[in-house]
Amino acid sequence: MDNPMLRVSVAPHLKQKTTTSSLMYNTLVALVPALLAGIYFFGFAALKLALICMGTAVACETGMQRLMGRKLTFLNGSALLLGLLFALLCTPELPWWTALLGTAIAVILGREIYGGLGNNPFNPVLVGWAVARISFPAQMTTWIMPEPLFGLEAGGYIEYPPLEVLRVDGIDIFYDLPWLDLFIGNVPGTIGTVSVVAVLIGGIYLLVRRIITWHIPLGFLASGWLFGLIFWLIDPEVYANPTIYILSGWTVLGAFFLATDKGTVPVTAPGMIIFGAGCGLITMIIRYWGGFVDGAAFAILLMNAATPLLDRVRPRVYGRVKQVA
Amino acid sequence: MGPRTSFRGVFLPPQKVSNPAIEDAPLPQRVILPLGQDGDRLCHPVVNVGEPVKTGQLLGQSAHFLTAPVHASISGRVADIRPWFNPSGSEILSVIVESDGNDAWQEEFRSDDRFLEKERVQILANLKAAGVVEIGPPAMPLHAKFGKPEPSREYLFLVGIPPAKPIDTVIINSIDAEPGMAAKGAILQEHREDITAGIKIIQKLVGSAQVVLAVSSNGSSNLALTSELAGLGVRVFRGKDKYPLGLSPILVKSVTGREIPLPNGRDQDIGVAVVDAVALVHLVEAVRELKPQVEKVLSVSGAGMTAVKNYRVRLGTPVKDLLKQLGGLKAEPVKVIAGGAMTGMALFSTDIPVTKEMDALIFQTTEEATSFSSDGCINCGLCVRHCPARLLPSELSKYCEFNMFEEAKDKYLLHCIECGICAYVCPEKRPMLHLLRFGKRELSLT
Q: CA-CA distances (angstroms) from residue B424 to A31, B90, B283?
């Protein structure tokens, strides 16, 4: 019988166009405003750092995958995203070797050693950052003043990031800062986090493209803000206005990009809300009483550890009936 | 607040349906009629090889309650009775009839004007004799829905649900669930009288139960039908155009707010009967004209066709002949799918006949055919976000991938309704549905 050779596969025979690469490249696109803001305020040193980190990440990933005999995945953009995120968390003055070392640790010890994308328990970017921050505190916390390339005047009010001013100089000096400078990022700080507005644009892009859901960012920001509000109402002399905490430091980038890192966060809706809320809470606790000035990184890392537990908070499945017997 | 009727799902790309709604496919030269829907309950043949048969003549029957008799779909001669592959790949004893080209019916079917006055028992007898089978899965004879209740199933006692609950809601499913399916919409358009007559018959069968006609929001408006049905006390449910509304677990939930108890539960367990619109028309023909089910409306699409076309096809027509007769395909298909694009079965051979439980055929060319990858899960959570059964398909797929079936069962693997959304959305293109079905299969063997 003339029977053509037919392909046989299991259902479904229709696929959504979304691929891992499209998720990653969309997230990269969403980070472009933050990177542009970094270049605008800190000059092309920021771009150089980003390129170093991205190159290192791709090289390390490819090297590790070669070594472990795995499929090479540099084309899917996940290493580029990791590198760029790492660079955005660094001060523009960071020496190239620190950036290289941090990124390498992020890729190798943060991700590839566990089996690659999606199998790592902790956010690899933050693992790399934490190692670098603790090992090289001097290099990681050398700040430069923002010098906008055009248009704006340099925000010359403070010499180090706003949260550090709050911690060291006290609340009165901190209140002298114009909020607009905090919002657009005309203050010293890390490349990608100073400009809240740029990060927000990227975050909203992710939400609109449905790359992330609202659960984690909202949980993060709302719980952080509410926790801050409580203490601000108790004693405004000691604890600053909670909105300032949202506008400064890593809060927004953390909420939209770091706490939504695929693979290291819960996947159920209630789990994601609790995860976000926990991140916000721990961030504020570290900022108030902790040893580090900005707690967002450690808050996310801590909540990453709780992810397997939070994944157990799941909705009732369809058709489940209570056991009577 | 009433029960929640919303569900998770996806919006699939819309499809065009061609006009006129239903065309007749040419008579086949040869038909292969499997003597049943699955291996456990087959009919035994009542004809012999070489015997001449007429269209509509009984070929096989069984005393088992859950079987539907098989009738000749063309007139001719019984060429052979031997096992033949059905769409799922198992061999089922089948009667092969060679056509004599006349299509001579066994008897003239006269429309019985007083068919609406028939008694319940008589209706059920007609229905069983006509061998009407619902589109699967599970492909069940329609009379089983309304006939005597099945023997009680033990687990229902255990979970506190009284067996054999009387039916209080009948849902006429005329939602074409998946891309590639358009038969129900076409039936709604072309067989208005039959739909109303069918609803009247069903009302007779179920007494005071509420009848709900579920239609999709994007289909033709059917306003005339709506006003006619209002007089019969029928509620029209207009669902949103979201997959998997057309699958019965989700449809039942959307219409009534009740959930079918899983695993192993059926819609009857919660007093609901879902009847698809195509089967409803066969029901009317069976009761009105005593006409057995010898044909079915099949949606054909893909391989360069711009719209889904509906054909009235004789049962048992080999897919190969159908493909030849219909023509119209712009490109050579590399994949032939029996069923919709989301849950359908890819056929391994075009010798497989059109069966009662099949409602669509999709031909895919090399460009249209999708493939899976063997990459690991990246834990992105997209499948969890869209799972209508509110499962964690990512986790289940990993359990099944590494043979941890009992763990998967503890995480409610058996509550999966096999809609295929997890595999549709997976960015890594993992064969999610395959893994979950594999796990279920392994569990059923233990």
A: 27, 27, 35
For A23, which DSSP code?
Answer: H
Element (DSSP H or E) covering residue B433: helix B432-445
Q: Which two tokens stand for residue B46?
A: 């009542």
Q: Inter-chain contact B381–A71, Cβ cutoff 8 Å? A: no
Domain boundary (B271, B289, B307) is at: B289
Is pLDDT above 60 for A314? yes
* Dist CA B356 CA B60 (whole Å): 15
What letters, b where the CB count within 10 A reaches 16 and e where it falls short, cover B191-220? beebbbbbbbbbbbbbeebbbbbbbbeebe
Give yes or no: residues B119 and B245 share one domain.
Answer: yes
Q: Is B303's Cβ below 8 Å from some Cβ in A?
A: no
| B350 part of a folded domain | no
Matching residue, tokens 């003549």: B57
For residue B158, what is the nearest residue in chain A, using CA coordinates? A325
Domain membership flag for residue B165: yes
Q: Is the pLDDT of residue A171 over 50?
A: yes
Q: Which SS3 state, helix, strand or coil, does residue B121 take? A: helix
Tell me the C-alpha distance between B188 and B175, whole Å. Answer: 10
Looking at chain A, how many residues does it have? 325
Distance from CA of A42 to the nearest CA of B (A): 34
pLDDT of residue B425: 93
- Judge whether B119 lies within some domain: yes
Q: What's the total number of domains in chain B?
A: 2
Full DSSP string of B134-186: --SSS--BTHHHHSSPPPPPHHHHHTT--SSPPP-EEEEEE---STT--HHHH
- What is the structure's pLDDT at A299? 94
Tokens matching residue A5 = 């050779």
Type of residue found at A295: G
Is the predicted pLDDT of residue A323 greater than 90, yes or no? no
DSSP A220-261: HHHHHHHHHHHHHHH-TTTS--HHHHHHSTTHHHIIIIITT-
Q: How far apart are the first and last CA of chain A?
A: 58
| Rg of chain A taking only CA atoms, in angstroms | 21
Contacts of A119 in chain B (CB under 8 A): 376, 379
Q: What is the rounded distance in angstroms from the CA atom of residue A291 to the CA atom of residue B438?
A: 51
Rounded CA gap, A125 and A129, in Å?
6
CA–chain centroid gap for B16, Å, is 21
Contact A41, A91 (CB under 8 A): no
Cβ-based contacts under 8 A for chains A and B: 175
Angle at Cα A29 formed by Cα A23 and Cα A34, nearest 5°? 130
Neighbours of B3 (CB within 10 A): 9
Cα–Cα distance, A85 to A96 (Å, whole number): 16
Interchain CB distance below 8 Å, B394 and A267: yes
Among the partner-chain residues A13, A117, A311, the one whose CB lies closest to the CB of B337 is A13
To the nearest 10°, report the CA torsion of A251, A252, A256, A258: -40
**Domain boundary residue among B265, B289, B313?**
B289
The answer to whether B347 faces chain A, any CB pair under 8 Å, is yes
Q: Rounded distance, CA B284 to CA B281, Å?
A: 5
Residue B39 lies in a domain: no
State the Cα torsion A107-A111-A112-A116 to the nearest 10°: -130
- Full domain range(s) for residue B213: 115-289
> Whole-angstrom Cα distance, residue B165 to residue B439?
31
Assembly ipTM = 0.88
Of B46-50, B149-153, B247-251, the least confident: B149-153
pLDDT digits (tens, 9 = 90+) for A19-78: 999 999 999 999 999 999 999 999 899 999 999 999 999 999 999 999 998 889 888 899
